[in-house]
Write a structure and sequence with these properties.
The chain has 163 residues and is mainly α. It has seven helices and no strands.
Length: 163
C-alpha cells in the first residue's frame, strides 16, 4: 500500500532509483523490527519519517564524499590554471579515488571518512562506531592499503601498463 508512494518520495529527495528502492525497503524492515514498540503512531507517518531520515543521511554522506574528494584533489594538484590534459587527468584521478572509496567495506569507509574528512581521533571514532581504538587503527591501515592498491590498478590500466 505504501511502497510506490515511499519510493517516489525517496526518489524526489535523493534522485537515485537504486537508493530510493533501498530506502523504501529499509523503511519496511525498520517497521517490522520496531513493530512491538509502535503503538499509537500512524504507520504511514512512521514510514515517511524513516525514509526522510535515510534520505538526509544519504545526502550528508554524498556531501562528505564530495568535500573529501575536493580536498584530496586540492592536495594532489596545484590550484593553478591547467590545460585540458591536466583537467582530464584530475577528473580521472578523482573518479578513481571515489571508486576506490566506494569499494571499501561500509565500516572501513565510515572509519576512514571520520578520520580523514572529519579529523577525529581514533578514540573518538571508536566511541562513535562502537569498536576499540585498535580496531579503528586496523580499519584505517586496511583502508589506506585498499585505496592505494585500487589507485595503482586503475592508473596502470589507464596508462596501458600493468604490474
Amino acid at each position: 500500500m505504501y511502497w510506490n508512494a515511499l519510493n517516489r518520495y525517496a526518489l524526489r529527495l535523493v534522485r537515485d532509483h537504486d537508493a530510493a528502492n533501498d530506502m523504501a525497503q529499509e523503511a519496511f524492515v525498520r517497521l517490522w523490527e520496531g513493530r512491538a514498540a509502535l503503538r499509537s503512531a500512524s504507520i504511514g507517518s512512521y514510514l515517511y519519517r524513516v525514509v526522510h531520515n535515510l534520505s538526509v543521511d544519504e545526502l550528508r554522506k554524498r556531501a562528505v564524499r564530495g568535500r573529501w574528494l575536493a580536498r584530496l584533489e586540492a592536495t594532489l594538484f596545484e590550484r593553478s590554471a591547467s590545460g585540458p590534459a591536466e583537467e582530464l587527468d584530475r577528473r580521472e584521478l578523482g573518479t578513481a579515488i571515489d571508486g576506490a572509496l566506494n569499494r571499501l567495506p561500509p565500516r572501513r569507509r565510515e572509519v576512514f571518512i571520520l578520520a580523514y574528512v572529519h579529523s577525529l581521533s581514533y578514540h573518538e571514532i571508536a566511541e562513535i562506531v562502537g569498536i576499540s581504538p585498535a580496531t579503528v587503527k586496523n580499519h584505517i591501515a586496511a583502508a589506506l592499503a585498499g585505496v592505494r592498491q585500487e589507485l595503482r590498478r586503475t592508473l596502470a590500466l589507464s596508462s596501458g601498463f600493468s604490474d
